[in-house]
Amino acid sequence: MLARLQTFLPTAALALLIFYFGFHALTGDRGLLSSSQRDADLAAKTMELKKIRAERMDLEARARLLRNGSLSADLLEERARSLLGYADPKDYVIRTKR
Q1: CA 66 to chain centre
Q2: Cα–Cα distances in Å, from 28 out to 21, 31, 78?
Q3: DSSP string computed for 10-78
Q4: Domain segments of the chain: what residues?
Q5: d(Cα 39, Cα 44) in Å, to the nearest integer?
Q6: What is the pLDDT of residues 26-81, one digit of tens each?
Q7: What gap in Å lies between CA 24 and CA 6, rounded to an integer?
Q8: 93 to 69, 72, 79: CA distances (angstroms)
Q9: Cα 20 to Cα 31: distance, rounded to the nearest angstrom
C-alpha cells in the first residue's frame, strides 16, 4: 500500500503547487481579480496628482510675484495683513467661528 502511494506522491505535490500558485495568481495583491481595485486607485491618484500640480502652479505664480524683479505691491500687502493680522481702517472685517 505504501509503495503504491509513493507513486502518486510527486503528482499530488505538483498538483498542490499548481493549485497554490494559480490561486494566488487570481486572488493575490496583484492578481487578475484585483484589477478593478488597481484601476480605482489609479484614478484616485491621478486626480490627486492634478490637484497637486494645480496647487504647485499657483504657488509658483505667487512666488514669482514676490521676487525682487517683479514685486507685486498688492500681493505683498495681502501677505503682510494675513500674517500680522492687520486690517485697513476702510476694510470690513467679518469674524467667523472656526
Answers
A1: 30
A2: 10, 5, 53
A3: HHHHHHHHHHHHHHHHHHSTTSGGGHHHHHHHHHHHHHHHHHHHHHHHHHHHHHHHTSGGG--HHHHHH
A4: 14-84
A5: 9
A6: 887 788 778 888 888 999 999 999 999 999 999 998 888 777 777 777 777 777 88
A7: 28
A8: 33, 23, 16
A9: 13
